[in-house]
Specification:
seven-stranded mixed beta sheet, 129 residues, mainly beta, single chain
């Protein structure tokens, strides 16, 4: 049974930083992708970034390029999202999600919401002064 548990959200001032963590369990192979997504009130869920568990190929959506960094810790089965230079428009519930053998690989297409089968419970990020 695949499980994902996020942590690290909170309240931060504009320009500040947060690091989100996603601990993954239940996969029997090392061939899956992890994506970070976010959903603001009244808006659709959107992709943020993604990474392949084995080869580390990754991708970012345009609004976060240069500010967010995704990384993986294979020893601890975790994926992190370092978020710097946060803006009020980054306020949302952030989710990590996983997919095995995707049709649309992260490296080419970025995080595609409908591709992902397993989802965490989400963690709130609020950027406000």
């Amino acid at each position: 049974q695949v499980q994902l548990v996020e942590s690290g959200g909170g309240l931060v001032q504009p320009g500040g930083s947060l690091r989100l963590s996603c601990v993954i369990s239940g996969f029997t192979s090392d061939d899956y992708e992890i994506g970070w997504f976010r959903q603001a009130p009244g808006k659709e869920r959107e992709g943020v970034s993604c990474i392949h568990s084995s080869d580390g190929t990754l991708n970012y959506e345009e609004p976060v390029k240069g500010r967010f960094t995704i990384s993986r810790d294979k020893a601890n089965n975790a994926v992190y999202l370092q978020m710097n230079s946060l803006k009020p428009e980054d306020t949302a519930v952030y989710y990590c999600a996983a997919v095995e053998d995707p049709h649309y690989y992260c490296s080419a297409y970025g995080p595609v919401v409908n591709e992902y089968d397993y989802w965490g419970q989400g963690t709130q990020v609020t950027v406000s002064s």
